[in-house]
């Protein structure tokens, strides 16, 4: 315990928020694996507040900027921390539950927030909020998993008054609850009116990223939009994103991109994901892989660009995911595309890219039809013409033959072939029109397949 | 017109009317023969009616299905024999309709009270020859009038209870007394209410339309009305609680066990923990389900059935009954709601079913998972679709209804309208009710595609076949509905659809149709 408050004093002396936050860690550091147990043992519930007060005063009372009110606030915080540590240690011994840990950590969160509202905690201490918020979310998730294992005893009296059961709240109740508290921290940072140098506004992106993670986990990614809207309402007096630590910017840009991706706004999504890609540390392979997981399908739809071998080289998992598909798209092999999509379906669905990748079939089809066009060769030169012109009147039957072959020999009837071609035309992947009476497709003489050189 | 495979239609396509809002209205003036004579004389038909399943024939349905909780007919005022046949003004009919519209249901006002009040109001208006002078459209609903009665009675009760016995004016106003006998049967109605119906206020109200309007003035009394409603409900529950347990029992957090033996029960949203004597145990609920199934077959009164099912669901929930019986209650309610286009209720049932199936309870998960997919297609809910895909097992994906729904999804995702409409015409179970909700919008999308892809024209028959219309006439009507009459050209052998001249005609309607997907769709 004494160690803890030495750290506290040092942090105050240096005004180092991260050092201060470390004193509130719920995990014993590797060099001191007994830390939590020692803290717990050094006091008891009846004398804890007095002990803390004494330790703070003896270690740090001479620090500048630590006034009486603040000490009062920190005593409360560390007392709540000591309680939570009790539950964590008991949990390690199998004598407590994650639900209890979550509850006591939540209490700690509330008290810490109160410290900022009532006891004048300074802005440099906000890394404490990071520490608390980060673990609040993790404990909530663990508590939910724990509770879902012993279903039946979880819901209290509230559900007694409902018309139906609410399966969602029963499943992720704690995380939903946790979201409320993270939102409080969000507001705490957002509404600080102190001058920018000493404002809690500097905590905003860390908390936003935590909230994003929570919303994605809760399967309600769209709620992140609300946060972004609130943020943009305050944009005027917010420091620019570029002034925040890179690690926070990468995460933020990644989530912003994925959000657009899920909303099917691939152009915007690409912009943000590229930014995240460029900011990301080159050794953060996992994060790079995450970014690419969405950036590749994005590019496929916006610019019809497939990933190169070199790009995927460092990511064996992405190779496995995307290579077969890319191959089929290049070749225009519809059947193989379907198979590859089906084989990767579980993975794709899990990453929420299935519905996007599926649309890559259009590109595969475009490539197939383009081959037909090229195989058609050139019209005979007419008088006065010097450069050969490709044959632009292609019988539907030829396209049909190609589609049947591409579909692995399955017979596709003419009406469906026309439907597929009409789609190509509608999506501007092909220029021309179908003359149904004559059974031909009339393709544009200039750029029948835009962007592909023919 | 031959060769169109009507036999392939799922039952709902050919036999049931699709939900009104999604169907384009049949134009009575339009018959196929006229199509062949040319299209210029046709003006654009009226826009589709607002989504309101009750609007089609509310008077009829209410009149032919008398209130099932009591024997009084809701149309009683209309049929009142006084003075032989009366021509009821349209405004009065509308007023009656509004009174019975489920939207206006008030839990604190019983059906019997409502009917009595309605009868009273219209009857006295007739006696005073005020049928045509009263502004029926602004007349407060009987629910509001009854609530005012309650309020007055309550006030009176407060004033008199100290000195006068409550039942003092028991003999007053025998007519009123009689109608309230119905209410007396209703155990949830406190006793003071049947004996003390506030004659003075009622008399005032019945004879002076101006004051009646004032009573319902939203500005002056909306808050008051709400407050009264709350107060009344509180009092009801308080009374009921006292009846159930004379000595106050501490609230328990465990599930309760019901003791009620009544088969039917009106749905009332709980605002306090339920009372066992008002809750039916599973044994009784099973009988209730049988009764409701019979009633639904015989009477098809949806607002009654829905109400009853909701109270059943509530009873199941408060007793924490989660078994195969629960599944069947939700399944049946979901199917009925689907048939009636009540997407709100349908959705609630679906949510429950999903978690009930997840618990391993038996039922028809395949059927309902397929509906779920179709529904997500309708609401264009990509997250939902993705999650559903994630939940399906490989074996489930091969089951016919689910495979169908998945094929529908992928056909739409790839713009393959050809395949989509083939699937539409071959939908298993009740999926067609769901597909009807988005088929019009997909037709628009396909039309946009076709108009851009084909030049200079195509036969109308091609549209009919590709877009799953029942006849050329239907196809033509659809095009006309979206201002495309000038694109139809009568040729000697066939009707041509001038795709080359369409330009962006259907694009706006398409964008509009895809934008407004009402997620809740609740009645």
TrEMBL record, chain A:
Pfam families associated with the record: PCI (PF01399)
Family recorded in the similarity comment: Belongs to the CSN12 family.
The protein's name: Protein CSN12 homolog
Signal peptide range: none
Organism annotation: Hypocrea virens (strain Gv29-8 / FGSC 10586) (Gliocladium virens)
Domain PCI: residue ranges: 250-448
MF terms (GO), sorted A to Z: double-stranded DNA binding; RNA binding
Lineage: Eukaryota, Fungi, Dikarya, Ascomycota, Pezizomycotina
Automatic annotation (TrEMBL), chain B:
Region listing for Disordered, in residue ranges: 1-90, 166-255
Biased composition (Basic and acidic residues): 200-227
Annotated Polar residues bias: 1-15, 59-74, 181-199
Domain PCI per the UniProt entry, residue ranges: 342-513
InterPro entries assigned: PCI_dom, SAC3/GANP/THP3, SAC3/GANP/THP3_conserved
Origin superkingdom: Eukaryota
Gene Ontology CC: nucleus
Coiled-coil intervals: none
Gene3D superfamilies, A to Z: 1.25.40.990
Compositionally skewed regions (Pro residues) per UniProt: 17-29, 43-52
PANTHER family: 80 KDA MCM3-ASSOCIATED PROTEIN, LEUKOCYTE RECEPTOR CLUSTER MEMBER 8
Name used for this protein in its record: PCI domain-containing protein
Organism name: Hypocrea virens (strain Gv29-8 / FGSC 10586)
């Amino acid at each position: 315990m004494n160690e803890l408050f030495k750290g506290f004093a040092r942090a105050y002396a240096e005004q180092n928020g991260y050092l201060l936050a470390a004193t509130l860690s719920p995990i014993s550091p590797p060099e001191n694996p007994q830390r939590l147990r020692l803290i717990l043992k050094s006091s008891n519930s009846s004398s804890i507040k007095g002990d803390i007060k004494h330790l703070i005063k003896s270690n740090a009372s001479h620090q500048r900027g630590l006034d009486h009110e603040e000490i009062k606030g920190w005593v409360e915080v560390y007392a709540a921390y000591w309680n939570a540590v009790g539950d964590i240690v008991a949990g390690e011994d199998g004598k407590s539950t994650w639900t209890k840990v979550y509850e006591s950590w939540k209490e700690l969160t509330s008290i810490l927030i109160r410290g900022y509202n009532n006891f004048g905690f300074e802005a440099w201490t906000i890394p404490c909020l990071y520490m608390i918020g980060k673990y609040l979310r993790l404990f909530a998730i663990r508590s939910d998993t724990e509770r879902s294992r012993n279903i039946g005893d979880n819901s209290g009296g509230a559900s007694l008054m409902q018309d139906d059961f609410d399966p969602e709240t029963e499943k992720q109740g704690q995380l939903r609850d946790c979201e409320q508290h993270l939102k409080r921290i969000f507001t705490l940072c957002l509404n600080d009116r102190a001058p920018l140098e000493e404002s809690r506004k500097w905590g905003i992106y860390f908390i936003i990223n935590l909230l994003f993670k929570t919303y994605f986990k809760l399967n309600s990614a769209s709620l992140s939009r609300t946060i972004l809207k609130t943020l943009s309402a305050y944009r005027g007096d917010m420091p620019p994103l570029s002034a925040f630590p890179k690690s926070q910017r990468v995460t933020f840009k990644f989530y912003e991109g994925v959000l657009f991706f899920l909303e099917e706004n691939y152009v915007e999504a690409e912009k943000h994901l590229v930014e995240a890609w460029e900011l990301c540390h080159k050794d953060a392979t996992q994060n790079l892989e995450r970014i690419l997981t969405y950036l590749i399908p994005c590019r496929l739809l916006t610019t019809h660009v497939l990933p190169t071998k070199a790009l995927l080289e460092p990511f064996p998992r992405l190779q496995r995911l995307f290579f077969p598909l890319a191959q089929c798209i290049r070749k225009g092999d519809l059947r193989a595309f379907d198979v590859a999509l089906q084989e990767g379906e579980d993975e794709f669905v899990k990453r929420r890219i299935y519905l996007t990748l599926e649309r890559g079939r259009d590109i595969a089809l475009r490539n197939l039809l383009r081959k037909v066009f090229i195989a058609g060769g050139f019209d005979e030169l007419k008088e006065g013409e010097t450069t050969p012109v490709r044959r632009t009147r292609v019988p539907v039957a030829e396209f049909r033959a190609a589609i049947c072959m591409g579909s692995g020999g399955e017979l596709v009837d003419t009406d469906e072939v026309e439907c597929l071609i009409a789609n190509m035309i509608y999506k501007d992947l092909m220029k021309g029109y179908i003359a149904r009476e004559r059974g031909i497709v009339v393709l544009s003489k200039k750029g029948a397949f835009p962007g592909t050189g023919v | 017109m031959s060769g169109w495979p009507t036999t392939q239609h799922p039952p709902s396509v050919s036999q049931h009317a699709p939900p009104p809002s999604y169907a384009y209205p049949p134009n009575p003036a339009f018959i196929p023969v006229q199509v062949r004579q040319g299209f210029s004389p046709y003006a654009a038909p009226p826009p589709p009616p607002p989504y309101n399943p009750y609007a089609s024939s509310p008077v009829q349905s209410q009149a032919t299905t008398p209130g099932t909780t009591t024997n009084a007919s809701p149309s009683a005022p209309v049929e009142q024999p006084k003075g032989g046949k009366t021509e009821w003004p349209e405004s009065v009919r509308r007023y009656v309709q509004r009174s019975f519209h489920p939207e206006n249901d008030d839990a604190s006002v019983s059906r019997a009270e409502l009917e009595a009040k309605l009868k009273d109001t219209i009857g006295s208006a007739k006696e005073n020859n005020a049928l045509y002078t009263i502004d029926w459209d602004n007349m407060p609903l009987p629910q509001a009038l009854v609530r005012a009665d309650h309020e007055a009675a309550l006030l009176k009760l407060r004033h008199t209870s100290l000195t006068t016995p409550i039942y003092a004016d028991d003999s007053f106003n025998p007519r009123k007394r009689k109608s309230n006998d119905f209410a007396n049967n209703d155990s949830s109605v406190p006793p003071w209410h049947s004996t003390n119906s506030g004659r003075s206020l009622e008399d005032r109200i019945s004879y002076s339309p101006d004051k009646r309007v004032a009573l319902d003035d939203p500005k002056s009394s909306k808050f008051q009305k709400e407050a009264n409603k709350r107060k009344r409900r509180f009092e009801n529950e308080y009374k009921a609680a006292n009846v159930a347990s004379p000595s106050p029992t501490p609230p328990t957090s465990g599930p309760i066990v019901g003791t009620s033996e009544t088969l039917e029960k009106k749905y009332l949203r709980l605002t306090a923990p339920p009372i066992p004597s008002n809750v039916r145990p599973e044994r009784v609920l099973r009988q209730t389900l049988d009764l409701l199934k019979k009633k639904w077959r015989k009477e098809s009164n949806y607002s009654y059935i829905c109400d009853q099912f909701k109270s059943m669901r509530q009873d199941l929930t408060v007793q924490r009954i989660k078994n195969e019986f629960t599944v069947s209650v939700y399944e049946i309610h979901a199917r009925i709601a689907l048939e009636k286009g009540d997407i709100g209720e349908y959705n609630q049932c679906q949510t429950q079913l999903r978690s009930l199936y997840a618990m391993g309870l038996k039922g028809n998960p395949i059927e309902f998972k397929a509906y779920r997919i179709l529904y997500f297609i309708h609401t264009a809910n990509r997250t939902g679709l993705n999650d559903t895909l994630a939940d399906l097992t490989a074996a489930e994906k091969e089951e016919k209804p689910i495979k169908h729904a998945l094929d529908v999804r992928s056909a739409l995702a790839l713009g393959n309208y050809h395949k989509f409409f083939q699937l539409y015409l071959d939908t298993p179970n009740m999926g067609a009710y769901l597909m009807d909700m988005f088929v019009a919008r997909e037709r628009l999308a396909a039309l946009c595609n076709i108009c851009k892809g084909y030049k200079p024209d195509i036969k109308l028959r091609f549209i009919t076949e590709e877009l799953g219309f029942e006849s050329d006439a239907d196809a033509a009507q659809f095009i006309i509905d979206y201002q495309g009459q000038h694109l139809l050209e009568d040729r000697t052998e066939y009707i041509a659809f001038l795709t080359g001249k369409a330009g962006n005609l259907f694009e706006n309607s398409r964008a509009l149709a895809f934008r407004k997907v009402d997620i809740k769709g609740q009645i």
